[in-house]
Amino acid sequence: MEKLNRVLGRLNIDPSEFLGEIFQKILLMIIVFILVRIAIKLGNRFINGFFQKKTTDKFSIEERRAHTLSTILKSVYSYVIYFIGIITVIGSFVDITSLLAVAGVGSLAVAFGAQSLVEDFVTGFFIFLDDQFSVGDYVTLKNFNGIVENMGLRTTEIRDFSGDLHIIPNREIITVTNHSRGNMQAKVDVGIAYEEDIQRAIEVLENLCKQMAKENDKIVEGPYVLGVQELGDSSVNIRITAQTKNMEQWGVERQLRQKIKETFDQEGIEIPYPKRVVYQENVEPDRR
C-alpha cells in the first residue's frame, strides 16, 4: 500500500481520489452487468409473449415459423444489449469519441477479420427470409441429419437421433434437405417363404391395410400393397407404402410391422428367417 501511495505521489495523484474512482468504475461495471441481464430477460419474455399471442390471433402465423422468428429476434436483441453494455463500461475508462476515431483507423483490418462473421449473418438472414427450414424441422445440413433446435444469425443447432448436438456456422450451410415439408412416406417390406401362396398373402395384407387406414389417424393415404418387390435369397419380399402426416412415418412403419407379424401368425403364413441344419454322419469305428 505504501509503495502504491509513493507511486501515485510521484504522478501527482491523490490516492483517496484514485481508489474512489476505481471503486466507482467497478460498481458501474456490476450495475451495468445486472441491468444487461435484467434487460435481456425482460426482452426475451416480451418476445415470447408476443409470438405466443400471434399464433392464436386471427391473423396468426405458423407456430414453427413464429418460434424461429422469436429465436432470431432474441439473438439480435441480446447482441444489441451486450453491445450497449460494453460501450457503457468502456466509456467510463476512455473517451468514446477518441475510441471511435481509433476504430475508424482499424476498421479495415477488423473488416477482414470479421468477414466470416458477416457471411454467417447474411446467410442466416436469407435462410430465414426464404423459409428454408424452421425450429422443429427434420433436416439434413451438410452431413448431419436431425431436428433443428435453435436458429441464430451466426449458427444453427441440430440434434441427431443419437442425442448429439451439432452446431453449424450458417456460412457452411450450402445445401438444405428439409424432410418436414408436406406428407411423408412410410415404407415396409415384408418377406414370405417361397412355399407360401403369394396371392393369398397379398389379400391378407390388403385387408390389414384397410383396417389400419380406419384405425390410425396419422395415415393420410393408403396403406397400399404394391406387390412383389424382390425375390430374395430365402424370401419373396412384398412392399407396402402409405402417406402419413409429417414426422409420423416411423410410428406408422412400426405399427405396420407389428400388425403384419400378428396377422401372419393368425393366418399361418410363414415369415422366413435364417436356419442352420446340422447333419451328423455316423462313422463306424475301425475294429482292426
How is this structure best summarized?
With 288 residues, the protein is of the alpha+beta class. Helices cover 51% and strands 19% of the residues. The strands form two sheets. The chain has a five-stranded antiparallel sheet with strand order 4-3-2-1-5.
Describe the structure.
The chain is an alpha+beta fold and 288 residues long. It has three domains: 104 residues, Helix Hairpins, CATH 1.10.287.1260; 49 residues, SH3 type barrels, CATH 2.30.30; 84 residues, Alpha-Beta Plaits, CATH 3.30.70. A five-stranded antiparallel sheet has the order 4-3-2-1-5. The protein has a three-stranded antiparallel sheet with strand order 6-8-7, with helices on one face. Strand 7 and strand 8 form a beta hairpin. It is elongated. The relative contact order is 0.07. The mean pLDDT is 77.
Topology:
Blueprint: H1 2-10, H2 15-54, H3 63-91, H4 96-105, H5 107-113, H6 115-129, E1 138-141, E2 144-151, E3 155-159, E4 165-169, E5 176-178, E6 184-192, H7 198-215, E7 219-231, E8 236-244, H8 249-267
Antiparallel strand pairs: 1-2, 1-5, 2-3, 3-4, 6-8, 7-8
Helix pairs in contact: 2-3, 7-8
Keywords: Cell membrane, Membrane, Transmembrane, Transmembrane helix
Pfam family, one: MS_channel_3rd
Domain Mechanosensitive ion channel MscS: 117-181
